[in-house]
Specification:
Layout (H helix, E strand, L loop, with lengths): L1 E14 L2 E6 L2 E7 L6 H13 L3 E3 L2 E5 L7 E6 L21 H18 L5 E3 L7 E15 L5 H4 L1 H24 L5
Parallel strand pairs: 3-6, 6-7
Antiparallel strand pairs: 1-2, 1-3, 1-8, 4-5
Helix pairs in contact: 1-2
Length: about 180
């Protein structure tokens, strides 16, 4: 699961000519769901969204979370966070969870935030719709979260094999270099 968090003074989502979600000060969360995401991924991202200290208090900068400051959250589903652009010029979205499953996953994520915090302070976009997201980024503060940043290779055997081959090649290059200039003890 991936999320882009933006600290905002205001944010809204419009579909057509109607505003479907709107908040004042708080966090706008663009949320991408991969086909491999589980409840653990959901809980990790929810904890981060609610707990990251990205707001200032009278005692200093970076002292309060959205929950501590009792601010609002706008969640917008965004499958394009799983777009791959490594080959060709057209993004590949095959890593994103299919919409029939991801709609429920997104709804469950929003419900988890509501149970963990305050459902009345959470707004959403309209799942699957062409949305216009407007916001005023405060700071600007923008953070990227990835529930599997350190475990992708372990999840995919093909990726693990590629990573192992890269590491072996790197070690081989390093050993050739070490013969020319021995490492200091």
């Amino acid at each position: 699961m991936r999320a882009v968090l933006q600290r905002v003074t205001q944010a809204s989502v419009t579909v057509g000519d109607r505003i479907v979600g709107s908040i004042g000060s708080g966090i706008c969360v663009l949320l991408g769901i991969s086909q491999d995401d589980t409840q653990d991924d959901m809980e990790y991202i929810a904890r981060k969204v609610l707990g990251l200290r990205i707001f200032d208090t009278s005692s200093g900068m970076w002292k309060a979370s959205v929950q501590d400051a009792k601010l609002e959250i706008l969640c917008v589903s965004q499958f394009t966070l799983y777009g791959k652009t490594t080959k060709g010029m057209k993004p590949d979205f095959h890593s994103a969870m299919k919409s029939d499953r991801s709609r429920q996953f997104f709804d469950d994520f929003v419900a988890l935030l509501g149970r963990s915090y305050c459902a009345e302070k959470i707004q959403t976009g309209e799942f699957g719709a062409m949305m216009q997201v407007a916001l005023v980024n405060d700071g600007p503060v923008t953070l990227q979260l990835d529930s599997r940043k350190f475990s992708y290779d372990a999840q995919d055997p093909e990726q693990a094999a590629k990573a192992a081959a890269k590491l072996a090649a790197k070690e081989q290059r390093r050993s050739k270099f070490d013969k020319v200039i021995p490492p200091s003890a």
